[in-house]
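Lecture 7, part 2: worked example. A protein chain together with zinc ion.
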Amino acid sequence: MDCPICGSDDVEILNSKQKSSKKKLMEEYLLKCEDCGHVFKDVISLKKPKPYRLIISEQDKSHRTTIELSPSDELKSGDVLLSELGQIEVTSIEVGDKRVNKAKVEDINTIWANSIEIPARIGFSVDLHGEVDSYKLDLERDFEIAPGDVVKIDKHIVKVHVVKTQERKLTSGFAKAAVITRVYSKPVKFNNYDYDLTKHIIKKTKGKK
Ligand SMILES: [Zn+2]
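Predicted complex, written out as structure tokens:
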């Protein structure tokens, strides 16, 4: 945005407005040269956002999705983006068949990222006839727990009796970890279970009932 009269790049922005066509976003500027006082217009065009392939790893799973980015932008490892699954951090960028740390968005084939959404922290109680083993767990926010689920946790295999959410106590149906405050369970003599929560334990406390 240099002055067309004297060539100075010392310009003041008097006004700007956005225009958009099918493929481009245009920013039209009204500028004033600080050196010679000439007032002129200039237009900067940006390519419109397009969907790019995105693979998000979240704990054991990976999700394939897309994300809308402006082809004119630059992307690098460590950048934080907002995807349909919440906040993600870019770990690697695929351009052609190579993995790079930095690229112009329009050259990108696939973006690899980790989810950095804050997990849901819930309480999980195991009723041991007079004593209670109480756990704090960090779970994916959309992890579902239902009364009746048979669960391995620590050295116990238990059946879920009540799922307490922010609003009610459930004895049927299911709830997502994001809204669960505590799960109440009792040991069962099964060898099989629906899922194992042991690796999600953050803290264990023993207590009397
Ligand atoms: Zn000038």
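The radius of gyration is 27 Å. The pocket of zinc ion is lined by residues 3, 5-6, 8, 33, 35-36, 38 (CB under 6 Å). Keep this in mind for problem set question 3.
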